[in-house]
């Protein structure tokens, strides 16, 4: 079975350098442009992910694709919190079919090493 993600608004949730739940919540609030009243806890994140009325306007009727990247370090430092985060993402997707959360393997929006472009030479 394949799912057509064409037309979904893509939001990158970059967790590179995040060391705790508070950091994850702050990154999520910024990436998703959540309102000031966002509670910055697991329940509030679940509610926000499954509520299209607080999604970025560009998501419109096409749905939302949240690509979580740079998550590996957080998962290693805080395995229980990461397990909870994954459960929150999975529950939100079950509740809201117009939402997809994808975990990217490798990569981050931050440049690496001495190369300002972040590319890897051959």
Secondary-structure topology with pairs:
Layout: E1 9-14, H1 21-31, H2 42-49, E2 64-69, H3 72-77, H4 79-95, E3 99-103
Parallel strand pairs: 1-2, 2-3
Helix pairs in contact: 2-4
Structure description:
The radius of gyration is 15 Å and the shape is globular. The protein has a three-stranded parallel beta sheet with strand order 1-2-3. With 122 residues, it is α/β, with parallel strands linked by helices. α2 (42-49) packs parallel to α4. It is built from four helices and three strands. Helix content is 34%, strand content 14%. Mean pLDDT is 85; it is low at 111-122. The longest helix is centred in the last third of the chain and has 17 residues, at 79-95.
Mean pLDDT: 85
Oligomer: single chain
H-E order = EHHEHHE
Computed structural class: alpha/beta
Largest β-sheet summary: 3 strands, parallel
Shape: globular
What is the terminal separation in angstroms?
37 Å
Number of helices: 4
The percent of residues in helical segments reads 25-40%
Beta-strand proportion: 5-15%
Main β-sheet, spatial strand arrangement: 1-2-3
Strand tally is 3
């Amino acid at each position: 079975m394949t799912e057509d993600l064409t037309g979904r608004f893509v939001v990158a949730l970059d967790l590179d350098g995040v060391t705790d739940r508070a950091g994850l919540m702050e990154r999520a609030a910024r990436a998703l442009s959540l309102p000031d009243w966002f509670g910055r806890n697991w329940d509030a994140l679940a509610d926000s992910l499954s509520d299209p009325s607080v999604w970025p306007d560009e998501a419109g009727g096409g749905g939302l694709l949240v690509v979580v990247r740079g998550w590996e370090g957080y998962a290693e430092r805080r395995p229980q919190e990461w397990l909870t985060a994954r459960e929150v993402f999975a529950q939100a997707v079950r509740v809201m079919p117009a939402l997809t959360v994808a975990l990217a393997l490798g990569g981050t929006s931050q440049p690496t090493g001495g190369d300002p472009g972040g590319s890897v030479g051959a």
